[in-house]
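One record is set out below.
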Amino acid sequence: GEKSKSFYVVVGITSIINSSFSLLFIAIVGLTVSGEPLPIFPGHEFKMYFISMVFAITTNKLFENYLIKITNKVIYDKEIQLLRSINATSLESYQKLGHEKIINALIALPQIGQFPRLFVQILNASIICLCGIGYLAAASTLIGLFTFLFISIAILIYAINNKYTMIEVRRFRFVASGN
């Protein structure tokens, strides 16, 4: 609903701010290493480096604290919702559902609650990667292209590996359940 729309707007804005400070820090380091002066405030590289580093670390920490609060609230709300539904269920329905399914649902809730944190981490990493690749491509098209291909291949390998890992986990659960 309205609450989830505002959540995604806040997450998007804070993610962009957080990524921007990190990218500013990376750009200052890149310019300093290459010996080029900063386009703004030339001659004040150390001050800009220090300020951007402090802002990058501070916004990252504030953002992380915000995500921890949201994650804990999501987990708590879902646990309360599940426990209220169990409380409202008749004994016969509870027995029909099975104790193991309820325990598994309670165990799975923290994993579900991690979605906001994972969403933001993926968004931040994507923004930083795309801007970094853009920066590399501006410096050298070949290096930018090579980096893009390397990252794409790494993501593909990770996705394939994750798929096979999930198949093995499901197979293990199936065997462990005695089926």
About this structure: The chain has a mean pLDDT of 77.
